[in-house]
Structures are given as C-alpha cells and as structure tokens.
UniProtKB/TrEMBL annotation:
<comment type="function">
    <text>GTPase that plays an essential role in the late steps of ribosome biogenesis.</text>
</comment>
<comment type="similarity">
    <text>Belongs to the cytidylate kinase family. Type 1 subfamily.</text>
</comment>
<protein>
    <recommendedName>
        <fullName>Multifunctional fusion protein</fullName>
    </recommendedName>
</protein>
<comment type="subunit">
    <text>Associates with the 50S ribosomal subunit.</text>
</comment>
<comment type="similarity">
    <text>Belongs to the TRAFAC class TrmE-Era-EngA-EngB-Septin-like GTPase superfamily. EngA (Der) GTPase family.</text>
</comment>
<feature type="binding site">
    <location>
        <begin position="8"/>
        <end position="16"/>
    </location>
    <ligand>
        <name>ATP</name>
    </ligand>
</feature>
Length: 232
C-alpha cells in the first residue's frame, strides 16, 4: 500500500494538490494541519487563554488529550469530504478563521500536544482509525509539516513542496503578487513560528523537493502523480 507524505510551508498549495492527488489515485487523504487547527479551535472554544504571555501548556495538553481521546473529534479521510467535526458540529470552516490561524502555532508548538497528534496521525495512516472505514485497503496521502520526517518517515513517496515567499503569500490571499503585501494573513510569521518545532524548509534525506513557484496547479499535480506512479 502506497503512503504519500507531503510537507511544506503555508500557502504552497499542499492541501489542494494533496487532495487532487488522493482523488486521482482514489487514495485516502489526511490533512494533519486541520488536526492542529481543530485543537486550537477547541482550546479557544473551552475559553483557554492562548494570548497569555506564558500559555498554560499543561491545561492546553489536557484539553487536547480530552478532545482526541474523549471522542469529541473526527476527521473525514475521503478527499471529496474531508469534514472536521467536534461533538457533531461541522467545524471545517471555523478552523480556517483568522482567529484560529493566528493561534494555531502556539498550540502546535507544545511538544506533548505534538506527541498526541503524531500518535493519532500514525494510527490513521496505518488504518487503525476504526471510526473511518474510507481508508480501508487504500493508499493514503498525508500532508503537513513533519510527515516526511516524523509521522511517516518510511512512506513510499516523500515530497517537500516549496515556493518563493511572495508567491505563497499571493496564493494565500488570492491576489496578485504585486498587491499581496498589503493584506492577508502573515504566512511568513506563521512559518517562522512553526519552523522552531518542525523542519519543513529544507528536505530531509530521501525527500524529493518540488518547487512550484513557476508551476501552475496542473503542472504541480502532474509532477506528484509521476512520483507516485514511479513508486507503484
Ligand atoms: O497546513 P495548515 O496551514 O492548515 O496548518 C496549520 C498549522 O498546524 C501550522 O501552521 C502548524 O502550526 C501546524 N501543523 C504542524 N504540523 C503539521 C501540520 C500542521 O505543526 N504536521
């Protein structure tokens, strides 16, 4: 069974490419960023102060542990319906809010939180997530920041997607590169915070770098399809 691990910074187009790749091969799809976003959403929802000068890491870890082990959280593995649910509520949209985006690195930077999520992600990639039968007998595409290095370093296909910073900022804001500096989320700040705990700016040994700065969506997808075809 083929496992495809894709890492890269914010705004590089990982999610849309990874989803399309999963559709192409009829594989399952795991958005690990959505799991960190859902954890941050849950903490905010529980009234935990993520703006405090020194965050209560134990409180956050306990809240996230309850979220994952207490059956509050689920994520869909079908690339056509990668729904994120909390206590029966569809939070797929809510976890993309600027409030969650600006707090997520504080949660993902807590090492015991990472251990909880990494364990859950490994179980899902190995098909041990009984709650979702979609992945049964299928390959899987998992994307994030530490999939090629920590979560699934033995994946059959390992890719680091990169693009120049101004290109990524423009993709995130949906504007042209010329005006992107004016508005939109500061992806560079999030990457700086994230790169303190995960290494996604340079490729680890055996990981193929795909710089898509000058590629359109289809060209990027074609490159990834080629890499998976070579591994099958
Ligand atoms: O990929 P996305 O931008 O949705 O990820 C949201 C956040 O989740 C990242 O900024 C990072 O803080 C965290 N993350 C992580 N490790 C991963 C995936 C995401 O720390 N494997």
């Amino acid at each position: 069974m083929i496992r495809v691990a894709i890492d890269g910074p914010a705004g590089v187009g990982k999610s849309s490419t990874a989803k399309a790749l999963a559709r192409h091969f009829r594989y399952a799809y795991l958005d690990t960023g959505a799991m960190y976003r859902a954890s941050a959403w849950w903490c905010l929802h529980q009234g935990i102060d993520l703006d405090a000068p020194s965050i209560d890491e134990q409180q956050v870890t306990e809240a996230v542990a309850e979220f994952f082990t207490g059956d509050h959280f689920s994520i869909g593995l079908d690339p056509d319906a990668p729904k994120v649910m909390a206590d029966g509520e569809d939070i797929s949209e809510a976890i993309r809010s600027s409030e969650v985006s600006s707090h997520v690195s504080k949660v993902s930077g807590i090492i015991p939180v990472r251990h909880l999520l990494i364990a859950a992600q490994r179980a899902t990639i190995l098909g041990e997530n009984a709650a979702d039968s979609f992945s049964e007998g299928r390959g899987i595409v998992a994307e994030g920041r530490d999939i090629t290095t920590v979560v699934a370093p033995d994946a059959e296909v390992r890719v680091l997607m990169t693009a120049r910073e101004e290109v990524r900022q423009a993709r995130r804001t949906g504007q042209s590169a010329a005006v992107s500096a004016v508005g939109g989320e500061d992806v560079a700040a999030r990457d700086r915070a994230d790169s303190k705990v995960t290494s996604f700016l340079t490729a680890a040994d055996g990981v193929t770098t795909v710089d898509n700065s000058d590629m359109d969506f289809q060209q990027t997808l074609d490159v990834l399809v080629g890499l998976v075809d070579d591994a099958i």
